[in-house]
Amino acid sequence: MSRPRAGPGRDVSSLRRQFDVQGAAIADWLEVLPEAAWPAPSALPGWTVTELSMHTAQVAQALTDALAAGPVGTVGARGSVALDIAAYTAAWVNHAEEIADRSREAARGLDPAAVLRQHAADRAALAAALDATPGDPVIAARRGPIRLSAMLVTRVSELVVHATDLSRSVPSVPPVPLAAEAVATSCRMLAEILVARAPGRSVELRVPPHVAVQCVAGPQHTRGTPGAVVQTDPLTWIALATGRAAWSGALAAGRLSASGLRADLSGYLPVLA
């Protein structure tokens, strides 16, 4: 298992590949979705499948718009103006309705073919924008300045999370395929946010094979494993961290184990919703 990485060192080309693979998987799934499923309510309260599908197209558009604004600086040895992922995503909860309204408005009156065309257009526009952007600059995103690679991480995670939302929304068809690398990136990003918001070394969170991190203030451990250990699988961790699953339910279902003092992380979850 590896620890989530923060700051310089993320591979833009790898993240771009992950985004392309997961985005294509969603688009291919939508291509064969029964027409009757599109106007139906999705697994996300207040969203139809059409609106959620449009939102997955806008995941690409948000980064394209940020790249169009141009770089605002680069990251040097002494740091930069860039927000880290935990700080950048902290603003999402206060803008949840704005984000939802934007997707609903964009989807208004569109038939499935139009949504699919938008998917293709938005992915093509992002590819062109990335081709024209060398290196890993700090860009002016909607919620503040952030490194290109860090925003790509958030885009990959968004696609993974909403792929599972779409699959839950239409259980009568096979689920959206999930790219293994993209799932790993999402797991690491969500663990990184947890560590930033609950710093400490009293609990070890394990999400094999992707993550092993320590968090939560308490007794310091200079060697070995902390007295509290939480372990779960990647998709359960993603669901817990994004509010798609409840801690108590995952425990009862045997998809989560938690032992030792301070092992109950429910007070710190979700880290994103």
Could you walk me through the main structural features you see in this protein, from its secondary elements to its overall organization?
By secondary structure, this protein is an alpha+beta fold. The chain folds into two domains: 12-183, Four Helix Bundle (Hemerythrin (Met), subunit A); 198-268, Nonspecific Lipid-transfer Protein, Chain A. Helix content is 48%, strand content 11%. It has nine helices and seven strands. It has helices spanning 12-31, 49-68, 85-89, 96-107, 112-131, 148-169, 180-197, 234-241, 247-252, and strands spanning 71-73, 138-141, 144-147, 203-207, 211-215, 228-232, 256-259. Mean pLDDT is 90; it is low at 1-9.
**Euclidean distance between termini CA atoms:** 25 Å
**Residue fraction in strands:** 5-15%
CATH top level of the largest domain is: Mainly Alpha
Helix content range = 40-55%
Number of helices: 9
Mean pLDDT value: 90
Low-pLDDT regions: 1-9
Class per helix and strand makeup = alpha+beta
| SSE string | HHEHHHEEHHEEEHHE
Task: Kindly provide the radius of gyration, computed on alpha-carbon positions and rounded to a whole number of angstroms.
Answer: 19 Å
> Looking across the biggest beta sheet, what order are the strands in?
5-4-6-7
CATH architecture of the largest domain: Up-down Bundle
Sheet having the most strands: 4 strands, mixed
Number of domains: 2
> What is the number of E strands?
7
Global outline: globular
**Which homologous superfamily in CATH is the superfamily of the largest domain?**
dinb family like domain
